[in-house]
Please model this.
Amino acid sequence: MSDTFAVKVARKTCEADGICSYELVSADGTPLPPFTAGAHIDVHVGDGIVRQYSLCNAPHETHRYLIGVLREPASRGGSSAMHDRIAEGAEFQVSMPRNHFGLADGPHHSVLFAGGIGITPLLAMAEHLHARGLPFTLHYSVRSAARAAFRQRLEATPFASCVRLHIDEEGTRLDVAAALPDCPPGTHLYVCGPAGYIDHVLATARMLGWSDDRLHREYFGAAPVANEEGERAFDVRVASTGCTYTVPPGRTVVQVLADHGVDVPVSCEQGVCGTCLTRVLDGVPEHRDLYQTEEEQAANDQFTPCCSRAKSALLVLDL
Model:
């Protein structure tokens, strides 16, 4: 089976200010590959642009995929292309669904925290948990009512009583410390949204004694890392060829390798998705990704060449 297949936009809907949803169906009318709650697909927008979007419809549906796309103010071409160029009837390639943010096994209680467009994977989780009769609470935080995507869907759903909408401008801002003590023992926490929102939710949970094995997160975007004054160049060596290349300040490993015909698959280019994760055979990376856990980063045996750099003078890569 091919890694990608063609889909068609059956419906494009404005869900909130700056957010559109896209209902995708198979271009040839066949059932779509199955997916699990929390999964995403790579969308090949065109012109070499590939972006990842979470599936936010019920996982039991095989006739459609539903994604939500926020127009990013500093778009690198992906979200602006989706909003401006992709209309109903458009066809493009997507990847098979993949899941780095799946629900933990077992009949435990779940508490879901969504910040802004981070609601998308948690919608699929809520649909799955409700269908299985498993208890959960969904906290959805937005700055304004106009930014609350999928609000009508959530208010009309059979699990509406499990949803807590927090709107900053209306004075109902989320109080994580107040929400967590109500959770039964053994509850698992799932959070998705901007990095600052995720860090706040996780830090509060840890302060209240939650263990890391019950905390699950997915970042939608990394804060840009400015080139620090004095950032130095370093070398990368491709193990299979022995060729060594210099990565100067202001350029990424992926960019330098591409200049020399070494292709590394990338998607988000922000260290969020893990698509480019590469094994390190020698040297010490300077990790700038949000994909790996702190323990995985400490092992220093893999890194994300789309954004991370090196602490050592040389990195030897398993390429």
The CA atoms of residues 144 and 170 lie 8 Å apart.
